[in-house]
Design goal:
Layout lengths: L1 H17 L1 H5 L1 H22 L2 E6 L5 E5 L2 H24 L6 H20 L3 H19 L5 H28 L15 H4 L3 H16 L10 H5 L5 H11 L1 H15 L1 H4 L3 H23 L3 H21 L3 H32 L15 H15 L5 H16 L4 H28 L17 H24 L4
Antiparallel strand pairs: 1-2
Helix pairs in contact: 1-3, 1-5, 3-4, 3-5, 4-5, 4-11, 4-16, 4-20, 5-6, 6-7, 6-11, 6-12, 7-9, 9-12, 11-16, 12-15, 14-15, 14-19, 15-16, 15-19, 16-17, 16-18, 16-20, 17-19, 17-20, 18-19, 18-20
Length: 475
């Protein structure tokens, strides 16, 4: 079942892009392929499963098995790929290259499922790279010079970061980290006398895999890729693919090296400093940005480092806060990018100044934008409030000084900035100035295939707030 889950969307993507009969009727086949992949994923989430494809050595095996963490990220994968995929059917209805887009969409879905199920560092690294290579064409889709440049930047940043992660793999696997075991799999006798080397490797792994999550200073690919990528691709990259870096960091720190190795060391201190700097920098850049999708990209830089801050606390409660924030961010930020796609679809521009009065023409879309924004700001009962509360309370208890108060203070400051750069769009959309008489020109009718996924993702952000604590209570 596990192998089928990984291979089926890959084969479906190849059929969609390469077989003329399927390529011509992609609007029929893509929903079928997504539904079948969801059914396979649901079976794996419920029943589990394990498979080893081959063994290079006794310690290097390509193996997959879905533990609780893998199932959690697999659920996010299925939800976002499916809803953003349905949106993309409407968004790309008249695009001549849509079949190619969905081909890579499905192939990357298989790669991401494999990343969720990887059960050792070697398998994780391989699948992490495949997720990068198969999502890069989604950024490249429009084939414009800007898209080519952004795709190249995304590829270079991601591969460069992954190479730092590879160094961590090469150092830690001989020390016993040849499988994932919560609390750490390395053998003390193999690390004795080499603790500094192990800590350096872990730090490079955090920084390298953190590149995918946009952690400073290797965050530059996000604001370049999102403005040129199609809206469903942006929703996928920000809401999910960037979290492949989060998952890799979790596996590296909590399941391979073990939190005890770096707790209280320079690695934890530098990690927290970089995460705090990223939260502040991303929020400030988003507040100053006038292009909506680029504003949302900088917002992702900030919001993803909330999760990094939670993980850097190196305790179970911090992990729970990070997972809650990962879930609500996947739903809320996915919805925001889909909303931005509708605005772009209707107006032909992504400038925030042109969105005044858009609520008259697209009320459902602006309401979805409002609800998702409330979650990111951290307004109850949405998921953003629950996750930030969990992170702040845990920091007060578990973080070393001065981070015990710096982290809650930064979360509060970032929330205020988030309200500033998101809710201003809402206010101007619903309540334009009295002197504003020009109405935004509507190019064409927006398909329900584009509006329903946005609303469902907003419902998901609300569900995380209402039921998220129960969902991760047994972690």
């Amino acid at each position: 079942m596990v192998l089928t889950l990984i291979l089926f969307p890959v084969l479906a993507g190849i059929l969609t892009a390469a077989v003329p009969a399927v390529k011509k009727r992609w609007k029929v086949w893509v929903p079928i392929f997504l539904a079948l992949t969801d059914a396979l994923g649901a079976a794996v989430i419920v029943r589990g499963g394990e498979v080893t494809l081959f063994s290079l050595t006794e310690t290097l095996k390509l193996s997959f098995s879905f533990d609780w963490t893998g199932r959690f990220f697999l659920l996010l994968t299925l939800v976002l790929y499916t809803l953003a995929g349905i949106y993309a059917i409407g968004y790309l209805a008249k695009d001549a290259r849509a079949a190619s887009f969905f081909g890579f969409w499905l192939v990357s879905m298989g790669a991401m499922a494999a990343t969720c199920g990887a059960q050792n560092l070697a398998s994780l690294y391989l699948c992490f790279e495949m997720a990068t290579l198969t999502t890069m064409p989604l950024v490249l889709h429009d084939r414009t010079p800007e898209a080519v440049s952004a795709a190249r930047k995304y590829l270079f940043y991601s591969i460069g970061g992954a190479l730092m992660g590879l160094f961590a793999v090469l150092v830690l696997v001989p020390m016993g980290a040849d499988r994932f075991l919560f609390g750490g799999a390395m053998h003390p006798e193999l690390t004795a006398g080499r603790e500094n080397l192990a800590r350096t490797a872990v730090f490079l792994g955090i920084a390298g895999f953190g590149t995918k999550a946009g952690m400073y200073p290797l965050h530059g690919w996000l604001p370049s890729a999102h403005p040129v990528a199609p809206a469903p691709a942006s929703a996928l990259l920000s809401g999910l693919i960037a979290k492949a870096g989060i998952l890799a960091v979790i596996r590296l720190v909590y399941f391979s090296a073990g939190p005890d190795l770096i707790r209280g060391s320079w690695v934890q201190t530098v990690w927290m400093i970089l995460a705090l700097a990223t939260v502040f920098m991303g929020s400030m850049m988003a507040w100053r940005e006038k292009i909506l999708k680029k504003r949302l990209a900088y917002s992702s830089v900030s919001q993803l480092s909330y999760i990094m801050l939670a993980l850097a606390l190196l305790c179970d409660e911090g992990m729970k806060g990070g997972l809650l924030h990962a879930a609500q961010h996947a739903c809320a930020k996915g919805a925001l990018f889909l909303c931005a796609g509708v605005f772009l679809h209707m107006l032909g521009t992504g400038e925030t100044d042109r969105l005044r009065g858009i609520g008259k023409r697209a009320p459902l879309t602006l309401w979805a934008f409002t609800l998702a924004s409330l979650s990111l700001v951290g307004i109850p009962p949405f998921g953003g409030f629950v996750s930030k509360w969990q992170i702040a309370v845990t920091a007060l208890k578990a973080a070393p000084a001065p981070f015990s108060w710096l982290i809650p203070a930064m979360l509060l400051l970032s929330a205020l900035l988030t309200a500033g750069y998101l809710l201003t769009v809402v206010v101007e959309g619903f309540f334009p100035p009295r002197e504003e008489t020009e109405k935004p020109a509507r190019r064409e009718r927006v398909s329900p295939l584009m509006t329903v996924p946005m609303l469902l993702l907003c419902a998901g952000a609300l569900a995380v707030g209402l039921f998220g604590s129960s969902l991760i209570g047994g972690w």
